Description:
Elements: H1 16-22, H2 43-59, H3 74-85, H4 97-109, H5 122-135, H6 144-161, H7 178-193, H8 200-212, H9 230-242, H10 249-260, H11 270-284, H12 286-303, H13 316-327
Helix pairs in contact: 2-13, 3-4, 3-5, 3-13, 5-6, 5-7, 7-8, 7-9, 9-10, 9-11, 11-12, 11-13
Amino acid sequence: MKKASLHRISVKLSVGLALAVFGVFPLACAQDLPTRPDDSIPAQAELIYTRGLQYLAKTQTEKGLWSDGVGSEPGVVGLCVASFLAHGEDPNNGPYAKVIHRGIDYILSQQNEKNGYIGSSMYNHAFATKALAESYGVVDNPKIAPALKLAVELIVSSQKRNRFGAWRYTPESRDADTTVTGSQMVTLFAVRNAGIAVPDEAINKGLAYLAFNRGHDGDYGYTSASGGKPTLTAIGSLCLSLAKETDSKGYQASLAFLKKNLDFRDRYYPYYYEYYMSQALFHADEATWRDWNARNIRYLAVLQTPDGSFPGNQGQSFNTAGALLSLALNYRFLPIYEK
């Protein structure tokens, strides 16, 4: 079995320039990708992951995107970039360095220089911003710091304009839902992990909106407390875990709901569900995560196609990145995957 230490990140960047660039965003230090404790990675998980990365590297275009429809969306490119970083790939000198740099360059090219908006939806903006946060301090690109600053400012200002104190499809949206809100919240936690200040008010308002959508059984609905689903519950639970607020009865009820649905598979957004469920269980209960992780590895091993991609109606780049990131807790290189 391969050890995570084989993928150890060796490059560390100076943070002095980034400190000056960020200005109003206080910064303790730029992040380094942490190494996972030196225990064994399940061999089947490693095989799935390496084959998936090979597929993504082979199918990326020179412009840094993927030509399968959704692969041109900066949020999907962000998830693909994150899948390489989450495996501990060296972003500057490793075998996939060009893939990572092309992806980051593409994300930066899609940002509105005036307001910081990346792409054409807040979904895209969240996952693209998260990739920038995870790249900040480890990818040698001086454009990341100012772009990340603008992107975070847009998330915060959009929330302030929203009557629910949350987010939906555009920066101007007045309504909100748990999926878009969850993506912004996880991104803000990733931004904090990068050493960048995020207002407590933004976190607290986001958590309050998510709690508004939690039912009596701990399940989360889409825009209300009714119609709860495991995918949405995983999102809400993960946000509470990242906020270190896991002692409440609401959180415990949500965890119980997730444990009852370990065999659930989202028919419409299977890899989106995998992505969030793996993180929610990992932060909540290690024994339950290990059980689910073993099931997930077997499930993905059956689904993965001979070329290393994953099938589905969301586009192979998104499917593959989502599947791989659901295995990323086996490696725990990114700060967002640390307890």
